[in-house]
Amino acid sequence: MKKKSFLLILSLIIGSSSFAQLKSPNASPRTNISQIIGLVKVNLDYSRPSKKGRKIFGGLVPFNKIWRTGANNPTTISFSDDVKINNQLIGAGEYHVYSVPTESKLDLVIYEKTEAWGSLPYFDDSLIKARIETNFINLPYNVETFTISFENISNNGSTLNIAWDNKVAIFTVDALTKDKMINNIDKIMNGNPSSNDYSRAAMYYYEEDIDIKKALDWINKAYKDSDDLRYWHLRYKALIYEKAGRLNEALKYAKRGYENAKDNKAIDGINSLEIIYKRLSKK
């Protein structure tokens, strides 16, 4: 009986060990980037191979052939709303990203997502959503690990940088923010806007230099002089009044905000308002 029990336990151990799998590092690990650009959420999922002393473009990545723009599964990108890349419109949705490198350029292809694995033997033109070409820029250093990144992010867009070895290709992403924001603001202002709505609209118009008169009107509706204003309210008013050319009033708001920040021991407010106050004092 003991012998049978021993054999049963042994068989269970051997059986369970046969299902064990050796884990090892992935030579081209997968990464996922989630980035807000303007009002658009962008998700990027791709594998990152490393150079490892190899010749990349014209070698590991042949010229004039379809590249999966990474390794393993095709690179995937999604947009929560419409964008333009190098002025080509791409609708909201999820896509595969392929590219075709030449000696001097990178031809980026936004492609309908399919079940394909790896690079494609050829493109189905009906599945191409956008095809965008840009020049390679030669770098004075090597990028060891293949990198796709969003850089130079602003309210309106960013760049999409594809870098490996000693080359980078830079594409311009336009998040179409201005038109969307103006439409959204118009809708809010025609309804029942709150103080926060007025403030956000005013600061957006100020930052984008759209209509400083409207920005001035909205910031005064958001923060009335008779209200118990905090230093950040006064900072907004100082900046907008300064851009509107009403420097004496801007100076008063900056001074009042600076004193308020000091009273509240708000270091960020003290630092920013001191800069504005000193600048206005010299005008």
Tags for this model:
7 helices, elongated, alpha+beta, Serine Threonine Protein Phosphatase 5, Tetratricopeptide repeat, 30% strand, nine-stranded antiparallel sheet, 283 residues, single chain, 2 domains
In short:
The protein is α+β, with helices and mostly antiparallel strands. Helix content is 35%, strand content 30%.
Describe the protein's architecture and organization.
The longest helix has 17 residues, at 2-18. A hairpin with a 5-residue loop joins β8 (128-151) and β9 (157-174). The chain has helices at 2-18, 177-189, 195-208, 212-222, 231-243, 247-263, 267-281, and strands spanning 30-37, 40-47, 75-79, 83-85, 88-90, 93-101, 105-112, 128-151, 157-174. Helix content is 35%, strand content 30%. The model has no long low-confidence stretch (mean pLDDT 91). The protein has a nine-stranded antiparallel beta sheet, with no helix packed on it. It folds into two domains: 30-174, no CATH class; 177-281, Tetratricopeptide repeat domain (Serine Threonine Protein Phosphatase 5, Tetratricopeptide repeat).
Q: Helix segment count?
A: 7
Distance between the termini: 100 Å
Point out poorly predicted stretches: none
Helical amount: 25-40%
| Inertia-based shape | elongated
Q: Tell me what portion of residues adopts beta-strand conformation.
A: 25-35%
